[in-house]
C-alpha cells in the first residue's frame, strides 16, 4: 500500500511510532508538529490520508480538521483522529469538525493500517 | 548502534519525556506565579497527556495509570471545573516530581518509587465526586515489539453465487450527508464489508433520481442493501461501520429474517418500499450510481475505488521535518575531545619543529601551519559547543530539592532561577549536581529562617533562594543566594574554637570566618537535622568545585542573607593560555584571567613592607607579586630591574599584578590533570604539554594570590 500520509502529532514519540508503523508498510509519511505546521505542510502536499492528534499546541486537532475541510481539494481526504479517549462526545466533536474516523491511542499498527485501508481504499 | 526500531523509539520516548517534564515544570512555575491562562494549563495537560500516550504504546502500565490520574485532574483544571489553589499547585509540583521518578524507574527498569498510591489518592481527592466516577480504569494493549504487516486484502467478489439462506446477515446501509462531508466513502465501507465474506450488494436508487449535479456532490442519494453470506459475529460488521454509525442509518439483521432479496437480478425499488431510506434529492457525480441497481462488480469497484488523486511524484518526506537531531553517545564525543587535545599538542610540536628547522615566517609551510592552527581552534570550539548544555536541567533539579527540603523543615521557600540558558560543559553540569544540591539544602536548612522569625524581622514569611548562572571573564559563574539571616559569625567562630580549628585568641576578618565553613569537619547545625544529616559538609562541596577547576567564595550580610559564588572554567579540556617564563620556569596563565600586560616601571611600584608591594595601574593601586618568588622558584630579589607584569582579575573583580620574566606566546593548551597524588597545590590548576614536549604548569592566579589569604593564619591540625 503506497499511500501518502500526513501524520500530525506534537509528540515526537508518537510521530516516530506512526512513521515507523506506516513506512514499514510501504507508505510515504510526512509529519507535522501541530495543526498550524500541518496546514503549512499541506500547501505543498496532497496526502491520501491524514492522521491527526487532538491535543496540540497552536492549533488543536478539531481546528485543524475544520481548516482542512475548508480547503477545496482536501474536502474528501480521509482524516483519522488519534485520541487517547474514546469518549462519545469527543467522537461527536471530531465528526462535526469533519473527521473521517478515529484511532484510539495506543494504536495497534494492524488496526491503524486496516483503518487507513478502509478509508482510502 | 542499535538496529531495533522499537528500542530506538523507546530511547527517543524517554528523551522526549525529559523534555515534556521540563516544560511541565516551566508551566507549573508559571501557574505558581499566578499565571492561569488556558495555554499554560494546556501545556501541563499536554505534557502529562503525551507521556501517557507514549507510555501506553509501550505498555508501561505504572506510568500510564499515574499519568492518567494526573491528566484527569489537569483536564478538570483545563475545563474550569477545578480552580487550583496554592496547595493544589504544590501538589501538582509533587505529582510532577513523582511522574519524573516513575519515568526514571521505568526507563531503568527498576521498581516504581514508593508513595505512588498516596499521591494518586491525593490527586483523586482534588476531583469532584462526579468526575471521580467518570474516571474509568485504563486498559491499554501494549504495542508489542514486532512490526509485521500483511496488507494483502482479498478482492471483492460479488459474483452471484449459491446462497445458503440459513446464515449470514442482511445489512441496510443509508448514508447521511455527514458521511461524505467527513471524508468517508460508502464504496470503501462496502469493500471492507466484503472482506468479511462473500457479499451480494444491491444499490437502492430512488425513482426520481435527479440529474447529476456536481455542486451537491456530498448529498447522499443512494442506499445499499447487502447480503453477507458469512457467519461472522455482528460486532465484526459493526466494526466496519465504526467510523460512520453516526452519519448513516444502519440495520443489521440475521439473514433468515429478511430473505426477500433476490440476489441475482437487479430490480428497481421505489423509495416508499424502503422505509429506511431518506428522501433523496440529486445524484452524486462522484458516486458510481450506475444504472438502476447493481451488484458491485469487481470492475466497477476498481473504477470507483480511486477516490482521491494521488500526487504523480513522490513527496520528499523530510521536507517539512523540523531541525533534525541526532543523539550521540557521550563517549564518542569524549573520544573526539581527546583526539582534538592530541591534535592541538601535535600541531604545537609541528610548529616548533618548523621553527627549529629555520623556516622563514613567509614560507608556504608557515602559512599552511597558520591556517592549520585556525582550523584546529575552530574544530575545538565546535566540539565544545556539542558538549555544552544549558544549566536549565540542573536548575530544575534544584527546584525539586528546594520543594522537598522546605517541606521537611516546614519553611516556605521560593526558588528563583536566573540565566538557566547559560551553557556549560556537560561534565561540569553533571559533577555540579551534588555540591549544588548540598548548598541548596544548606540554604534552606541553615540559611533561611522560619516563617515566624522572618515575620518578626519584617521580612516576607516566604524565603527566597536565587540560583543564577552567567558567563563572566571567560568562566561560568554560578551563584546561590538566600535572603536569610546571613552567616552567624560569632557562632561560627565559637564552633571553630570548640572544634579546635582555630586558636581561641585568633583575630579573624569576616571573610576569614566565612572561610571556616569550608574546613573539614565543620558543621554549624548544633543538632544534625534530617536534612543536613543526609548531606556532606561544605569541605566536600569545596573539594568537588576545586576538582572541576573552580573556586567558591562567600559573601554574607547579617540579617540580609548569604551568597555563595562558584566560578568554573568553561571547558575541562582546552584553554587559551599565555605562556610565560618566571625564574627559569615555563608556566601557563589562563588568558581569561589576564586583563592587561605592561612593562614594569620603578616609579609605579609602592613598597609597603619587606614583602608587600603595590603597583599603580591606571590610577588604581593593585597588589604586586613576583611570580617566581610567589611559587617558591626563587628567593627575594630586587624587582626593579625585572620585566613584565600581568594584570589579572578574579570573578569577584579583585585584581592583582604578577611579575614575569618574559611572555613567550599565547596559545591553546590541553589541560592535563595533575592526578590524585599531587593533591591540591596552591596556585596551580593543572598541567599541560607544550609544543616542545615540555611539561608546564597551568596557574590559577586567583588561588595563587588570594588562596593563601583566604585560609587564614591558623593551624588546621593544631591542638
Order of helices and strands of chain A: EHEHEHEHEH
CATH homologous superfamily identity of chain A: Response regulator
User: β content of chain A, as a range?
Assistant: 15-25%
Query: CATH homologous superfamily name of the largest domain in chain B?
Result: Histidine kinase-like ATPase, C-terminal domain
Radius of gyration of chain A: 13 Å
- The backbone outline of chain B, from C-alpha atoms, is elongated
| Structural domain tally of chain A | 1
Number of domains of chain B: 5
Overall mean confidence score, pLDDT of chain B:
75
The CATH architecture classification of chain A is 3-Layer(aba) Sandwich
Could you tell me the radius of gyration of chain B in angstroms?
39 Å
Structural class of chain B: alpha+beta
Task: Provide tags for this entry.
heterodimer, A: 121 residues, alpha/beta, Rossmann fold, five-stranded parallel sheet, 5 helices, 43% helix, 20% strand, globular, B: 719 residues, alpha+beta, Four Helix Bundle (Hemerythrin (Met), subunit A), six-stranded mixed sheet, 21 helices, 19% strand, elongated, disordered C terminus, Bact_response_regulator (chain A), Response regulator (chain A), CheY-like_superfamily (chain A), phosphoprotein (chain A), Sig_transdc_resp-reg_receiver (chain A)
Explain what the structure shows.
Chain B: Residues 369-572 form the Histidine kinase domain. With 121 residues, chain A is α/β, with parallel strands linked by helices. Chain A has five helices and five strands; from the N terminus they run βαβαβαβαβα. In chain A, helix 1 (12-23) links the parallel strand 1 and strand 2. Chain B has five domains: 5-134, HPT domain (Four Helix Bundle (Hemerythrin (Met), subunit A)); 169-304, no CATH class; 332-383; 391-569, Histidine kinase-like ATPase, C-terminal domain (Heat Shock Protein 90); 574-710, CheA-289, Domain 4 (OB fold (Dihydrolipoamide Acetyltransferase, E2P), Beta Barrel). In chain B, a hairpin with a 2-residue loop joins strand 16 and strand 17. The radius of gyration of chain B is 39 Å and the shape is elongated. In chain B, helix 3 packs antiparallel against helix 4. Chains A and B meet through helix 1, strand 2, helix 2, helix 4 and helix 5 of A and helix 1, helix 2, helix 7 and helix 8 of B.
